[in-house]
């Protein structure tokens, strides 16, 4: 196995990660992908628009979503992964069985929203494959995480958590240069927590690893428009949030509306580095 280059080289800043959900209940309303042909077609369209990688997920992590077992998750994602053979793919899973199969099918990044706390075998699977890894912060678990999120200082708590998970992952044999970190917008966080994290994202960049951010269509973006019951945000609000994140050091941006994000980030990039 040839060692993969550092994640910063493989996915230069800014890179857009396109989201393909093979789930019936994604919060963002794009769970069209139970029919697998459209999922694969959508992924190719995202690549054509400039996505650097496609994140394929078979289990919804929206607040209150029901967990699924490995068999069902694999049944959902395998055909999409097979249809994307040879393309840059990330698997959004916390399960070692799903990650193992996805890596066999060519996925190069494991996006684990539990930051290696969900399945004790996942770290070994990532290490053995020499795969890239995203470690994300979440307070609580998807079913209950939005009930009463609480922090004394959300930024320093998220930072300490990511530092500890990074140390754990490296201790488990995963090369630090293949790891990126994610504050987990919306995962056990109020709207105020999310915007505090976004405002002070630079403090997380101090951890020395590339930051992945997933703000796309998140409910906080709808809530600040005046609808306290909003469950999603618009593409326009998502792009604005992505730009704010980029200006504060974000490296990889996870997004549903890929063309909008690629074009906006290109402008921001040229402004920052003529
Ligand atoms: N957000 C979602 C899922 N996976 N992974 C990372 N690293 N960061 C995120 O912010 C993140 C994530 C939730 O969004 P979505 O995939 O659109 O919805 P669902 O989980 O319902 O499929």
Query: What small molecules are bound in this structure?
Result: 6-hydroxymethylpterin-diphosphate
Bin the helical content: 40-55%
On the 0 to 100 scale, the average pLDDT is 94
Pick out the low-confidence regions: 32-36
Distance between the termini: 38 Å
Number of helical stretches of at least 4 residues = 11
Structural class: alpha/beta
Gyration radius, to the nearest Å?
Answer: 17 Å
H/E order of the elements?
HEHEHEHEHEHEHHEHHEH
**Tally of DSSP β-strands:** 8
Strand count, sense and barrel status of the largest sheet are: 8 strands, parallel
Task: Please indicate the percent range of residues in DSSP E strands (runs of 2 or more).
Answer: 5-15%
Strands ordered across the widest β-sheet: 6-5-4-3-2-1-8-7
Q: What sort of overall outline do the alpha carbons produce when their principal axes are compared?
A: globular
Brief synopsis:
With 274 residues, the chain is of the alpha/beta class. It has helices spanning 7-10, 36-48, 70-83, 96-104, 122-129, 154-171, 191-199, 201-205, 219-223, 235-247, 258-272, and strands spanning 15-21, 53-57, 89-92, 109-112, 132-136, 179-182, 212-213, 252-255.
């Amino acid at each position: 196995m040839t060692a993969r280059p550092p994640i910063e080289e493989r996915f230069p800043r800014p890179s857009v990660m396109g989201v393909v959900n093979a789930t019936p209940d994604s919060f963002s309303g794009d769970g069209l992908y139970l029919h697998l042909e459209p999922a694969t077609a959508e992924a190719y369209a995202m690549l054509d628009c400039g996505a650097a990688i496609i994140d394929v997920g078979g289990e919804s992590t929206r607040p209150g979503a029901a967990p699924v077992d490995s068999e069902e998750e694999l049944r959902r994602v395998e055909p999409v992964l097979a249809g994307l053979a040879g393309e840059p793919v990330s698997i959004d899973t916390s399960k070692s069985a799903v990650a193992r199969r996805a890596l066999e099918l060519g996925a190069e990044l494991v996006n684990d929203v539990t930051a290696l706390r969900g399945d004790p075998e996942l770290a070994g699977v990532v290490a053995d494959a020499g795969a890239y890894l995203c470690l994300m912060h979440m307070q609580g678990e998807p079913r209950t995480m939005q009930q009463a999120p609480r922090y004394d200082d959300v930024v320093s708590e998220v930072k300490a958590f990511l530092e500890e998970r990074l140390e754990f992952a490296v201790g488990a044999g995963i090369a630090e240069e293949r790891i990126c970190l994610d504050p987990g917008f919306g995962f056990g966080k109020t709207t105020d927590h999310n915007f505090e994290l976004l405002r002070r994202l630079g403090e997380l960049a101090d951890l020395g690893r590339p930051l992945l951010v997933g703000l796309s269509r998140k409910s906080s973006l709808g809530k600040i428009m005046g609808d306290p019951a909003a469950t999603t945000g618009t593409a326009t609000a998502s792009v604005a949030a992505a730009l704010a994140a980029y200006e504060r050091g974000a490296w990889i941006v996870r997004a549903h509306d890929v063309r909008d994000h690629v074009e906006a980030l290109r402008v921001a990039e040229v402004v920052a580095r003529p």
